[in-house]
Amino acid sequence: MYEAAQLVNADHFIRQLPNGYDTELSDDGSSLSQGQRQLLSIARAAIADPPVLILDEATSSIDTRTETIVQKGMDSLMKDRTVFVIAHRLSTVRNSDAIMVLDQGRIIERGTHDELIAQQGEYYQLYTGAFKHS
To answer: What are this entry's molecular-function GO terms (predicted)?
Structure first.
């Protein structure tokens, strides 16, 4: 449990809870921030150690500062396994081995981040549009 929490960057906040790792949480996790709940979910996945993961909008409801922490945790968790990431925040998929851009359920582009940027297609438009305002 401790190794999983350290792997996904959850250890620091867990140790700061009233009783650290022994803190009891409510069923709905309402005493935690959205980012903390995400980190705990990622830590649970690390403990389960599945060969394949599906992450559906894993960073969609957290702020960009917390997203950076969660993303580092997800990067650690994704190492050496197959992971399907469904995301609208393109920073979530930037380090992926392969990115597929879908439009109405059809794959319209496929490649690494750098390949898709070089193509200057839909991914490029989405990526540059998303980061002009950041």
So the answer is: ABC-type oligopeptide transporter activity; ATP binding; ATP hydrolysis activity
